[in-house]
Design brief:
This protein is of the alpha/beta class. The chain is 40% helix and 20% strand. Helix 2 crosses helix 11 and helix 3 packs parallel to helix 4.
């Protein structure tokens, strides 16, 4: 029988060991990711579509055991913050995310929002490095974000506007049916950059093409695009070039159909979020879109990737999958593991060197400006079942046949970035 002294010692040991045992049994603290996006207002559908992509990517990492770190594996946790598509709201969302312990901010739908986040993240990391964050951008494609306004804390995983335009014009250059173009875009930094680069590239690649319209409209505030569509038709333009996205694109192409415009649309985002359904038969053979990946890319691994997304999100209206968002989360997971830490400077340095592959698609982060380098594809809208169109978009009956693949080395453009790195 134990003596009273031994009983006291055993009780004391149990008391001292209990917290350590509880910590060992407790779930590992997650690495918090904060998605800052429009979840209300005119572009809410774009935010929800992005969330599905990011959620799927995070689930894939967690299903294989999470992030492997020296102290044990840690899961990723994705949290949502509504920016309402406004820079001021995005800043408030960023502050909330940091207060909630987020270590990585994810945003992309709006270059205007991206610009304020780049500055705000840099100031946060300088002012309070213990609560520093990295900013991963999957869609904000104003070229200045990885040129004049590049930041060590910002990484872009989409091709910027000039890269996308170069890919589109490669196809337009060979399309001799296009004799005149109408340029239309959203009136903010990204839309202005698209139109500026369209003018420049047409001057170089197709100087014979006449620009018969050049117009900017308010972002997210136009409810009736019929007056714009009427001007496009009246101009006699054989093609429209636009970087419009979300409802601004869907309403534009719907109005064009209603006025009977029969020219082509060269778009950045005409392959999703209601645009194909809005055009219907009027878009067959006439809508061209550039992307980092398309579901009808003719490879077995690409098809399996797309099919697995459709199994996860079976509703036709949820059909909006982007390879770049998957590669982005894979690159982040890889970089945290390589750094052996969630500290933002080691992770950023590892992310600068990231090389990632998924479902046969590959990409590399360029350290000079933090612009991801990957292949681009250009597709043309057609009926599902037509040659090269096995999968449609959002249950519309229309999909995109791949007509051009641009290798990463051919999609790459020089940068003017002068990166300032922490010492």
């Amino acid at each position: 029988m134990p003596t009273p002294r031994r009983q006291v010692l055993k009780s004391l040991a149990a008391t001292l060991l209990a917290p350590a045992f509880a910590r060992a049994q407790a779930p590992a603290a997650p690495v918090k990711l904060a998605m800052v996006e429009s979840l209300s207002g005119p572009f809410a559908n774009t935010g929800e579509a992005v969330y599905r992509n990011l959620l799927w990517a995070v689930e894939r990492v967690n299903q294989r055991g999470g992030i492997k770190l020296p102290g044990g594996a840690r899961p990723l946790a994705l949290e949502r913050y509504d920016s309402k598509g406004q820079p001021e709201e995005a800043l408030a969302a960023l502050r909330s995310a940091i207060d909630d312990g987020a270590q990585v901010v994810l945003q992309g739908n709006s270059s205007a929002v991206a610009a304020v986040l780049v500055d705000a993240v840099a100031k946060q990391n300088e002012r309070d490095p213990r609560r520093g964050v990295l900013y991963l951008n999957y869609s904000a494609v104003d070229p200045v974000l990885t040129n004049e306004r590049c930041s060590f804390w910002h990484f872009r995983f989409d091709a910027h506007a000039d890269m996308r335009m170069a890919a589109l014009v490669q196809v337009l250059r060979d399309d001799q049916s296009v004799r005149s173009c109408y340029l239309i875009g959203q009136d903010y930094s990204f839309g202005q950059a698209v139109l500026r680069e369209a003018r420049r590239q047409l001057g170089v690649q197709r100087p014979d093409v006449q620009i018969v319209g050049d117009e900017l409209h308010p972002l997210g505030r136009v409810k009736d695009f019929l007056p714009y569509a009427a001007k496009i038709k009246a101009s006699g333009a054989s093609a429209v070039i636009t970087g419009n996205w979300g409802n601004d694109l869907t309403l534009l192409v719907k109005a064009a159909r209603e006025v009977g415009y029969d020219g082509k649309f060269y778009t950045f985002y005409g392959n999703a979020l209601g645009a194909p359904a809005a055009l219907g038969e009027a878009g067959v053979g006439r809508v061209i879109a550039v992307a980092d990946w398309l579901p009808n890319l003719p490879t077995a691994r690409s098809e399996a990737f797309y099919q697995s997304f459709r199994q996860r999100f079976p509703r036709p209206q949820d059909d909006y999958v982007h390879m770049r968002m998957q590669l982005m989360i894979e690159a982040l997971a890889q970089s945290i593991e390589k750094a052996g830490s969630t500290a933002i400077v080691p992770v950023a340095r590892a992310l600068e060197q990231a090389q990632v592959t998924l479902a046969g698609q590959a990409g590399t982060m360029r350290a000079a400006d933090h612009q991801f380098q990957q292949a681009l594809v250009v597709g043309q809208m057609d009926r599902v079942g037509a040659p090269g169109v096995r999968f449609d978009v959002e249950g519309s009956g229309y999909g995109f046949r791949v007509v051009r693949v641009i290798a990463p080395q051919n999609a790459e453009l020089p940068t003017t970035c002068r990166m300032v790195r922490p010492t």
